[in-house]
Write a structure and sequence with these properties.
This protein has 371 residues and is mainly alpha-helical. It is built from 15 helices and six strands. The strands form two sheets. The chain has a three-stranded antiparallel beta sheet with strand order 1-3-2. A hairpin with a 7-residue loop joins strand 5 (267-271) and strand 6 (279-283). The chain is globular and about 55 Å long. The N and C termini lie far apart (42 Å).
């Protein structure tokens, strides 16, 4: 056996041990960060901690285009109509405060008119071509056939989902749940696009969201918290400062998740050993039960999906996702694609060693790792 064959086998072995939701998440997060880096490079903007590149809006993720700006035409749109078109809520107050929109009050708030500002119109023009551009970049990096083989089973699944899901993951709600932020409604005749025509991140988002909704029907804890924080904790304790690196999400996302876990008495944060300043987070006995149940629950969903969508489709999807080499490693094409431009804020922080097992899309700006 050649050395490279052994390396490939190790990578595939690691990927095969991941739940389908984690494979979907890492592909979607990687795609989104590439879009976000490109937007930041092309669009004048400002940030809280990393300066500005001229007069521009506060920097946000492309998810704010999916759930807001693409529907805000030059004539404006009613708040109620915006939510209907996006099929999920946006952070309307944030988008106004950050400089993308202006809300003209006319009667009840849901009848208010949302209009794009000059900066919002510019951002809309920058965002619109990015999903297709990044997908073409993926075809060059991974191979045209590989991307086609990823799109095919995703589209087959989306075509069978009976609900009119949004084109992006929702901003997480109370308890960091996904299901509470989506008005799960049956697809009406003619309202749903043919899945094969959808952008790759839309396909990834809708399949992952359907998985999360099913998970959260059977779980008192959100998939986001379970997959990104509970999964990496243990009863002996983990340094709180290490949790972002272990889970692949921001410290702000970890803080929000730990708040929920402490409130539910599933985890505690306490002082470390004498003489050490680092705080430790550890699971309680109840938290350990949640952790133990997580792989069983995601495994049960995957088995149900074999029957629901077909074993061939599910096997093809897993194989296509595993080929992206999503696990940590300097040679991972997904992680190589996240190398930021020198003028991007991510160039000033530590590069991710791993990607989230579920995106942490927060009200802070929609970044997929909760940044």
């Amino acid at each position: 056996m050649r050395p490279e064959e052994g390396l490939e086998g190790n990578r595939r072995g690691r990927a095969e041990s991941l739940p389908l939701s984690a494979l979907l998440s890492q592909a979607l997060v990687a795609f989104t960060i590439e879009c976000d880096n490109e937007f930041e490079h092309r669009m004048p903007h400002r940030t809280s901690n990393y300066g500005s590149t001229g007069k521009g809006p506060w920097l946000v993720s492309i998810v704010m285009w999916w759930n807001c700006m693409r529907f805000v035409g030059d004539a404006g749109v009613r708040v109620a109509e915006l939510e209907e078109l996006a099929r999920t809520k946006t952070n309307l107050n944030g988008m106004e405060r950050w400089g993308y929109i202006a809300v003209e009050a006319k009667g009840p708030s849901r009848d208010s008119i949302v209009r794009a500002t000059a900066m919002g119109r510019q951002a809309r023009e920058v965002w619109e071509p990015l999903p297709a551009a990044i997908e073409e970049r993926w075809r060059k990096r991974f191979g045209t056939d590989e991307v086609t083989e990823l799109r095919k089973p995703l589209a087959e699944i989306v075509d069978q989902i009976p609900f009119d899901l949004p084109d992006c993951l929702p901003i997480l709600g109370n308890g960091l749940f996904s299901r509470e932020r989506v008005p799960v409604r049956p697809v009406s005749r003619g309202s749903k696009q043919t899945a094969s025509n959808l952008a790759l991140p839309v396909l990834l988002s809708q399949v992952l969201l359907e998985f999360a909704i099913e998970f959260e029907k059977d779980s008192d804890l959100s998939l986001a918290i379970t997959a990104d924080v509970v999964r990496v904790l243990h009863e002996a304790g983990v340094r709180v400062r290490d949790l972002p690196l272990l889970g692949g999400v921001s410290k702000e996302a970890v803080s929000m998740a730990m708040g929920v876990l402490e409130k539910l008495r599933l985890a505690v944060v306490e002082a470390g050993p004498a003489g050490r300043r680092a705080k430790l987070a550890r699971l309680t006995a109840s938290g350990r039960e949640i952790q133990d149940r997580y792989p069983r629950l995601v495994g049960a969903i995957e088995k149900r999906w074999d029957e629901r969508f077909g074993q061939n489709t599910m096997a093809a999807l897993r194989d296509a996702l595993e080929r992206l080499e999503v696990e940590p490693g300097a040679t991972s094409p997904l992680l190589r694609g996240l190398e930021p431009y020198a003028d991007c804020w991510r160039a000033s922080v530590q590069r991710p060693a791993r990607l989230p097992h579920y995106p942490m899309v927060l009200h802070r700006g929609g970044f997929p790792d909760g940044s």
